[in-house]
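## retry 2 of 3
previous attempt timed out at serialization; input unchanged, resubmitting
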Amino acid sequence: VVIKRAMIIGFLATGASFIFAIGSFDLSLGANMLVSAAVGATVYNATGSLILMLAVCIAVCVVLSLINASLASVFNLPVFVMTIAMMSVFTALATLIISNVDANGIDTRLSRPSNPDNVYYQVIGNMWFQLAMLVIFVLLCAFLFDYMKMGRRQKFIGGNPVCARLTGIAPMGITIFSFTVAGVGVGLAAYFTILQDVSVSTSSGGGVGMNMLIAIVFGGMAISGGPRTKALAAFIGGFSMAFLDQFMTLLLLDTNTGSAVTQVVKAVLFLTVVTLLSLSYRTKLLPR
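## retry succeeded, writing output
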């Protein structure tokens, strides 16, 4: 259970690290994932293709992320206002898709392939294959951050956007690249969410956005981004968050009171870690 929960948070938070690296953020990623899952499940019910469902999930998330990137970089809208508004829009869109599917009498659940020996399902549906996909995705993101010019430019913009602009770095291109990679991570999270839950509803992905933020912070990465951005932070923090969720579930049972206490504990830990990290990052010298 811990591994399955950590994989979804890991995909989402690792992709989101590219947005946080440039000093920005996107609170609508959870709603973005819900829209992608709804469209992907609908496509699977119509075609029965797991490969096509994967392509649709990633494509939908990338398009929605690019819409947010355009609003943030091209139209210069305040990021906080934009993400809150788009979160409401994406949630309403997903609800509309799911309700229309229900009204037409189509089963919104992702049914297993008719052939139980389907090689694609046997491989893709395996938990260890999904974990391997997460490890590969995290390593690719770490390579982009640490060894590619694009990753260094992202950290530069997050650390000092004025100096980055004066050195000739185009923030618009970096922003679009960051949101695109984030869209790929969200799309993979949506895809594996469908495979694990075998259904899509308006509650799918609930609380993922908050878990994403806590996972990034637990992994030791500053939300403000900059040179301290770490691709492995989301991977480490994702497993920490999944373990915390499962531990609180076993301790308090899965009741309304237990869920409320879990959310309070998460909030307290989040504020504590953010405070400690902010204190440790205060220095008189600029990061090299």
